[in-house]
Design a protein that fits this description.
The complex is a heterodimer of chains A (433) and B (467). Chain A has helices at residues 11-21, 51-62, 84-89, 92-95, 107-124, 136-150, 165-178, 188-191, 214-222, 242-245, 307-310, 323-361, 385-394, 418-430; strands at 69-70, 128-129, 156-160, 181-185, 196-202, 226-231, 249-253, 269-273, 286-290, 296-300, 365-367, 376-381, 397-398, 401-402, 408-411. With 433 residues, chain A is α/β, with parallel strands linked by helices. By secondary structure, chain B is α/β, with parallel strands linked by helices.
Chain lengths: 433, 467
């Protein structure tokens, strides 16, 4: 009767149910809707497909995407995903649950979020992490709000222009509509003043360079401003952590922790801070407690910050997290451990430096921005960058992303091989550019 | 469900490993020298667990067994639309996993088709003109929609519109999103019939009003039948109408927000369009606009790249499965299921507004809570906790704020009459227990991995990470 495998109702079921309700037809259940609002036309939608038709159609769509070896980063990194992760995250007890409101039957979700928070705290050195945000750029935008809320009578947040373009764009959008005063500057240490509530600086900038944050942190703290570090969590295994730099808040995108590129999402933002700013932190937070029998258990806590209690006075409008992606990251970090994560960085670094040297040796690039890098770097192209990009695409590679300065950006992860690097360099060396 | 007490950190043993990577990148060729000067290197130990692959798989499998999902059983959580999440959608959702978000259009023909077709499908379903897919959740969609509302007024040089009207029955995210977007919030009261009171609305309107946020059907599951007049009034004062799509499910294939006069709206793909909630996310909250706002649609850039592409894929698969033929059945059956439960329980639970509902409805606690001399009555919280003992997820409780003992039930269309009958029987049994001995309810749940936790202690002395 209902005509679809997701609809369990038989004709007889519907008849009996309508009888109990006391109406004659399903349409009678819409008697409260003014008649001319009931859509009388035919919906301009495709005809229903069988399951096999759906599968075939999506495979045909997938075949229209060109498979490419990714040598690009700029906020999305092609790291390896261990096979355990999708196996765990597709368990339907995790996948088909809602936010853990009923904690007695949600200890699975609550426990992995607690583990996630603990791992983010350890990576960043911060005291408190929330249960995750939509993505890195929105976490940075929320950090602006947090800086303004955590300091008195200061109206401005300085954002380094070394942040990735998609982060800057998102921060700028949030500020435009909220009325927050955000200034994007080349050198936050030089621009910080008594009206500055906070500064946002990248641990690794959009050129891939590992930054020395000491000058920015000293200047900001001397002026009484908070320091937010935007970081790539994968690299925190080897470079100085936000806490080691003296940052107050750490944000970034967890995508580099084994989450597939997936055309940009879902990813997961993280946000952690020193304990003194805990009550200004947006989003869900999980805490440990006990039940009446003394059994350790976990609950959503510090909810007085949140929209369902505080409505317009909440720290943020966010009412969810990227829970399943937080699980993804938690399983990744559990598998990798300290040694695995360091190994990832060592392989990236070895591959990226090998590519860097090989590209310079082609004579088609010059050094652009000097400084230590791990997996991502920029060069100054001595050839037409558009032709370079097209030659790479034609040969099945994606790289040489153009920066606003006219540099080209490359990235090498542990997923790439020496053979792939050699093949790409050969294309560049031999192409008519 | 079985109580399992480990945390992954407690399984750690130095020297164990759960990873498998190649030894070196260059396979014996001279590796470049250490690239990062020691002054920029991490000194603090990482403190991540050291566990084997088997440890990880067993640990998270054990955790999953303390969790309840739609695949476990009935999940009548009001306002959350916990419908069944089709498996074919999961299967196809990984097909675009290897695509970098900055790849040029010429290399992503399949992805482009998904976004374009979704845009036209959602436009057909809602009566909006076009959608942006950047928002990652419902609240994120609200914020984006309000940004567009503001942009619209800015684009007309109309900068005096600083206030947004929100009904007292609205989701908490509505006023919170408006505040984040820099608006002042004006609350409009509901009447005794649970609907926005038009007479209370009139004096609030003026040249300072940017717009109104409405949920229709509202959070009581009631259709705002005076929406035509409300739209005329708000438009008349120069404001716009925002539609909170959290409750779109009963209108799927039946009623289009665009036809009701809404200018901007969001949809929750993780509610109406069947993508799984994942324990709190990822979702997707695309925002649609009427024709006049289309040129502004690309202005707010609210997330990193293109929104949650893999979630959008799943929702598209769902729409293709329903197709033109079945689209209206989802909403109708959701409405049938809600009214069936309501009519079957209204003699034991307080039904404050006894009219036909849409996909959900709200009870205001028990008719007889068992209160007597020296014995406290059973509350909505107690009913919710007792339901867990019988293998059901609880409804949404204490929301909306219009009633003290709100119990908000949304069954969705994917539940059979047999499941609903079981639920009704259990709800009646709980009501009978409350009348006889409320203490059975006070102490519930009895058969879950843990009992009620001490939430006060959790907030007073926060333990937020493993040490």
């Amino acid at each position: 009767m209902a005509g679809l495998s997701y609809f369990p109702h038989t004709g007889e079921d519907i008849r009996l149910m309508l009888e109990r309700i006391g109406v004659k037809s399903l349409d009678d259940l819409y008697s409260d809707v003014p008649a001319d609002f009931i859509f009388k036309g035919e919906y301009d939608l495709p005809e229903a497909m069988s399951e096999q038709q759906v599968r075939d159609y999506f495979h045909s769509l997938a075949s229209r995407n060109v498979p490419l070896k990714v040598f690009a980063g700029q906020g999305a990194y092609d790291h390896y995903t261990p096979s355990v992760i999708p196996y765990i995250t597709s368990r339907s007890e995790f996948l088909t649950a809602y936010t853990p409101y009923q904690c007695e039957i949600s200890q699975g979700t609550l426990r992995y979020i607690f583990e996630y928070q603990s791992m983010i705290c350890r990576l960043t050195g911060m005291d408190v992490s929330n249960a995750s945000m939509y993505d890195g750029p929105t976490a940075a935008a929320e950090a602006v709000r947090m800086c303004l809320a955590s300091t008195r009578k200061r109206s401005k947040v300085l954002v380094s222009d070394g942040l990735l373009p998609h982060v800057l764009e998102t921060v700028r959008s949030y500020a435009r509509y909220s009325g927050e005063n955000v200034e994007i500057v080349p050198d936050v240490a030089a621009a910080v003043d008594a009206d500055t509530a906070g500064v946002i600086v990248p641990g690794i900038d959009r050129f891939g360079i590992v930054r020395d944050l000491a000058p920015a942190v000293e200047a900001a703290h001397a002026a009484g401003a908070l320091v937010v570090e935007y970081c790539d969590p994968s690299t925190l295994a080897v470079i100085k952590s936000p806490a080691e730099w003296g940052a107050d808040i750490a944000v970034g995108d967890g995508q580099s922790l084994g989450i597939p590129l997936a055309y940009g999402g879902p990813y997961v933002g993280f946000m952690a801070c020193k304990s003194e700013f805990m009550r200004k932190l947006p989003g869900r937070i999980v805490g440990q407690t006990a039940d009446a029998k003394g059994r350790r258990c976990f609950v959503l806590t510090l909810q007085a910050r949140e929209q369902h209690i505080r409505r317009e006075k909440a720290t943020s409008n966010i009412c969810s997290n990227q829970s399943l992606m937080a699980l993804w990251v938690t399983v990744y970090l559990s598998l990798m451990g300290p040694d695995g994560l360091r190994k990832v960085n060592a392989l990236c670094s070895e591959g990226a430096h090998y590519l860097y040297d090989s590209l310079l040796a082609t004579g088609r690039f010059a050094p652009a921005v000097e400084g230590p890098f791990i997996k991502e770097f920029v060069l100054k192209p001595l050839v037409d960058p558009a032709k370079l990009q097209q030659a790479l695409l034609d040969a099945g590679f994606f790289g040489a992303l153009l920066t606003p300065e006219g540099y080209v950006s490359f990235c090498v992860t542990e997923k790439r091989t020496r053979e792939e690097v050699d093949a790409m360099v050969k294309v560049i060396r031999e192409a008519a550019l | 469900m079985r109580y399992y007490d480990k945390l992954i950190f407690e399984l750690s043993k130095p020297g164990r490993k759960g990873w498998s990577l190649k030894d070196s990148f260059c396979g014996g060729a001279a590796a470049p020298a250490a690239p990062v000067p020691s002054g920029l290197c991490r000194q603090t130990p990482l403190g991540l667990p050291e566990v084997s692959e088997v440890d990880v798989v067993r640990h998270y499998t054990n955790l999953s067994q303390m969790n309840f999902g739609v695949d476990t059983g009935f999940y009548p959580l009001g306002s959350c639309t916990m419908k069944y999440n089709p498996k074919i959608n999961e299967e196809i959702s990984t097909l675009f996993d290897d695509i970098h978000p900055l790849q040029p259009e010429s290399t992503v023909g399949g992805v482009k088709e998904v976004y374009e077709k979704m845009d036209s499908c959602l436009a057909a379903i809602t009566g909006m003109k076009h959608f942006t897919f950047l928002p990652c959740a419902g609240a994120h969609g609200e914020l984006t929609g309000l940004m567009l509302m503001k942009e619209y007024h800015i684009s007309r040089g109309d900068t005096a519109r600083t206030k947004v009207i929100v009904p007292d029955s609205a989701h908490g995210t509505n006023p919170a999103s408006a505040a984040v977007c820099g608006f002042e919030i004006i609350v409009v009261k509901s009447g005794a019939n649970g609907l926005v009171d038009v007479e209370s609305l009139k004096p609030l309107l003026g040249p300072d009003i940017a717009g109104i946020m409405m949920t229709n059907p509202n959070t009581l599951g009631l259709f705002e039948r005076e929406i035509r007049e409300i739209a005329a009034l708000v438009h008349g004062c120069g404001g716009l109408l925002y539609y909170d799509g959290a409750n779109m499910n009963p209108l799927l294939g039946m009623v289009r927000p665009g036809d009701m006069g809404f200018d901007i709206m969001h949809l929750n793909l993780h509610k109406t369009f069947s993508t799984p909630h994942g324990g709190g996310g990822p979702g997707s909250g695309p925002v649609g606009v009427a024709e006049a706002l289309v040129p502004l649609l690309g202005k707010p850039h609210v997330s990193g790249f293109h929104g949650n592409a893999a979630v959008i894929l799943k929702a598209y698969a769902y729409i293709l499965t329903l197709g033109r033929e079945h689209i209206s059945m989802a909403g109708k059956l959701a409405t049938l299921n809600a009214n069936y439960i309501k009519e079957s329980l209204k003699d034991v639970y307080k039904l404050p507004i006894p009219t036909v509902c849409k996909h959900e409805f709200v009870f205001d606690g028990l008719l007889n809570d068992g209160a007597r001399e020296g014995v406290a009555g059973a509350t909505t919280l107690d009913v919710a906790k007792r339901l867990l003992d019988f293998g059901f997820h609880a409804p949404t409780i204490y929301f909306p704020l219009l009633f003290h003992q709100a119990l908000m039930i949304e069954p969705t269309e994917t539940e059979s009459k047999e499941i609903l009958d079981e639920f009704i029987e259990v709800m009646r049994k709980i009501a009978a227990e409350a009348a006889e001995d409320p203490d059975i309810l006070h102490q519930a749940p009895h058969d879950t991995p843990i009992g009620r936790p001490d939430e006060t202690a959790a907030a007073r002395n926060p333990i937020l990470q493993y040490r």
